[in-house]
Amino acid sequence: MGHWLERNIVEPGKLPLLLALTAFVLTFLITRVITRLIRAGKGPFGNVSTGGVHIHHVVPGVVLTVVGGFGAVASGRHGFVAGLCAVVFGMGAGLVLDEFALILHLDDVYWTEEGRKSVEVVVLTAALVGLMLAGFSPFGVNDVTQEEAQDRGGVISSVVVNFLFAMLVLLKGKTRMAIFSVIIPLVGLIGVIRLARPGSPWARRFYRSRPRARARATLRAYHRDKRWSGPRRRFQDLIGGKPDPTPSLERR
């Protein structure tokens, strides 16, 4: 284990990234545990307020992110300070993205259906950083050979092609695939080949006069959402807690 860590993490200069990812995940999990205890009225924890204003944990998260980010830029990639800044940055990012939905909606939607976005973004961020830690580079530059890497034209061409793939996938309404295709070009290729989601810009433009393709896209999206929406919601509830029922459901 020590040899693997030295060879694959320390020598390539990825230790700060590993520390940041670890701090990010742990901070998010600990924060969720504390907020769930507060919600249940258990434990010694409580909401922080000053002058009648509820201080959300995104506020210290922004401070930690700024301090850690600027500190990392100033310290370089190696040394104790760089590692410490990476931890501070990861903690701040964990606090900020835990309330991503609040920032997106400019409202306290932490325990609502809209609040699920925070959990989704955190999981997505952790997965992408994990892929980068494993050696994947954005836009498939890691797939370029050493000879091609010395040729700027080859690198630029690879970046442009993979960027276009990512944009096409995004136009097809497949946001998650588009994000992952930035790291893994094969995902982008699969997304380009597959049908677009109904309602996406691609479907509105190219399926308007193709009723068969429009029907196939709608049917595929229905079966996919039906298959994965349940497991995805249960996974989000396990990590972040179950949202409060909506008023319409309470009346029923």
From TrEMBL:
Transmembrane segments: 15-34, 55-74, 80-106, 118-141, 153-171, 178-196
Location of region: Disordered: 233-252
Protein's UniProt keywords contain Transmembrane helix: yes
Origin organism lineage: Bacteria, Bacillati, Actinomycetota, Actinomycetes, Kitasatosporales
Protein name: Integral membrane protein
Keyword Transmembrane helix: yes
Domain of life: Bacteria
Source species: Streptomyces doebereineriae
Keywords from the UniProt entry: Membrane, Transmembrane, Transmembrane helix
